[in-house]
Write a structure and sequence with these properties.
The chain is an alpha+beta fold. Helices cover 28% and strands 19% of the residues. The strands form 5 sheets. Strands 5-7-9-10-11-12 form a 6-stranded mixed β-sheet, sandwiched between helices.
Length: 288
């Protein structure tokens, strides 16, 4: 947002300089100087930070309105969508985070990857190389097991849309890192409708809190049978067996972790993981 747009949004929403400073982390003295006109040409980074305090219309070069989704990430404990979520030309009244629906999700531009949880948009930032390696590592073992055993279940990996509860929840659409669906009626060419049988999420700094709290509860409520949280930072695999009253077990990289929905016959072997990480990420991933 430009300086003039920030001033207009401040007047429209009635936010004080104190409230803007609290929402953005920009020092109060800086906020006061920007909006009073003492600072004539604020740095671009300052303008970007200040724009996070507002939910308002933005205006493109043609003068058309487009909807912004822009609330501070700390309000929700995750990385929120802070740029325009809808196509240029939108004339809807602006909407607060927490009110968006599946219909809104499908109107987000195709080049933006987001998740929608309880009406809140979350940006899906580009994952790190290690994150992607772990996803491929786990998916390949699951895929090979199902193929070699002529299994009926279907393995997926991100980005695949999953609408967890089609009957009760029209405000949630997620993209698990790896998951298995054993009911083919839940699968269509657009998304998966209903809870998968098995879900894996690989933690990253931007998704850690969301995956360990919000998604844990959403998956349990959607009758997911088993949920794994892989934590590369701590070299652990936390397994929740929802069919056994939230039974929780933890494994470490270097060990074998059995998949409960297959009664332990499918085992994900993390034996080479520490060696690989220390070889490829020794400056940042000292896990042994």
């Amino acid at each position: 947002m430009t300086l003039s747009e920030l001033r207009k949004a401040k007047d429209e929403l009635g936010l004080s300089c104190e409230a803007i400073a609290a929402r953005t982390g920009v020092p109060l003295s800086t906020v006061q100087k920007v909006f009073s006109g003492v600072t004539k040409r604020p740095r671009e980074e300052t303008l970007r930070q200040l724009s996070r305090a507002f939910i308002s219309f933005d205006v493109d070069r043609r003068g058309e309105k487009r909807l912004r989704v822009s609330e501070p990430a700390f309000d929700y404990g995750g990385t929120l969508a802070t740029e325009p979520a809808f196509e240029p030309g939108s004339t809807e009244p602006f909407r607060r985070q927490g009110t968006y629906t599946i219909e809104d999700y499908y109107r987000v531009p195709d080049d933006r990857r987001v998740e929608l949880i309880d009406g809140v948009f979350y940006d899906m930032t580009a994952p790190r190389a290690l994150h992607q390696h772990i996803i491929g590592f786990v998916f390949s073992q699951i895929y090979n097991y199902i193929q070699s055993n002529n299994g009926d279940c279907i393995p997926f990996c991100a980005p695949t849309d999953v609408r967890l509860d089609i009957l009760k929840d029209d405000r949630t659409m997620v993209q698990p890192d790896v998951f298995i669906v054993c009911d083919e009626d839940k699968v269509n060419d657009k998304n998966v409708t209903g809870g998968p049988d098995f879900v894996v999420e690989v933690l990253s700094p931007s998704t850690r809190r969301k995956d360990m709290t919000k998604k844990l509860q959403k998956y349990a409520d959607a009758d997911v049978r088993e949920y794994w949280i892989i934590d590369p930072e701590n070299a652990t695999i936390t397994v929740y067996n929802f069919e056994k009253d939230y039974e929780m077990k933890q494994y470490r990289f270097g060990e074998k972790a059995p998949v409960s929905i297959y009664d332990g016959d499918l085992v994900i072997d993390f034996g080479d993981m520490p060696k690989y990480i220390n070889k490829m990420y020794d400056k940042e991933w000292n896990l042994l």
